[in-house]
Design brief:
With 200 residues, the chain is of the alpha/beta class. It folds into 2 domains: 101 residues, Formyl transferase, N-terminal domain (Rossmann fold); 92 residues, 3-Layer(aba) Sandwich (Rossmann fold), CATH 3.40.50. The chain contains 6 helices and 8 strands; from the N terminus they run βαβαβαβαβαββαβ. The chain has an 8-stranded mixed sheet, with helices on both faces. It is globular, with a radius of gyration of 16 Å. It binds glycinamide ribonucleotide (GAR). The site of glycinamide ribonucleotide has 15 residues, from helix 1, strand 5 and helix 6.
Length: 200
Amino acid sequence: MRQVAILISGSGSNMAALIDDMARPGHPARPVLVVSSEPGAAGIARAEAAGVPAVALDHRAFAQRSEFEAALQARLEAAGADLLCLAGFMRILSGSFVERWRGRALNIHPSLLPRYPGLDTHARALAAGDREAGCTVHELTPELDAGPILGQARVPVLPDDTAAALAARVLRAEHRLYPAVLRRFAAGDRRPVLLSFPED
Ligand code: GAR
């Protein structure tokens, strides 16, 4: 049984989708900890309501990134985590931290990588005139949003889309994709999960 820690910074809707799926019988992983980089994140209460221990580690309370990461690592070890899921975690982790978790850490990104790494993915997809958008789950590597792809879900871009409308459509796809990838990955299967929601 893999022991999963989920890192968040915000509402935690992907975290909730992962926790819900792990509660189903026969799942090869269980959630042991949620860590938020933002003390006020709605995801903290959401994790606690689901019975998963949750802590806030305010990055502003640490003078250096290395100190924040040492505190994070200590929490992860104390919880017995052996698999990390970044779910809307908006801090960049250092190369040395990521190396320590290589092969044991996943991230979800709201674009069809390799298109649009970084921020403002939906506005950039609309500005480019893309007819299709989506999300990607990939292995965490030191280069931002560039690790091996473990799954993608595609949604249409609709004629009058705004970035907010597209983000909401992509987020619904994220909630389907991330649990499917975690389930497979935790069982030792790295074949990519490919989903498409053309009617959404
Ligand atoms: C999600 O759309 C996720 O893909 C994105 O933040 C949102 C978090 O929502 N992540 C990134 O942009 C990472 N660079 P959530 O807190 O409701 O899961």
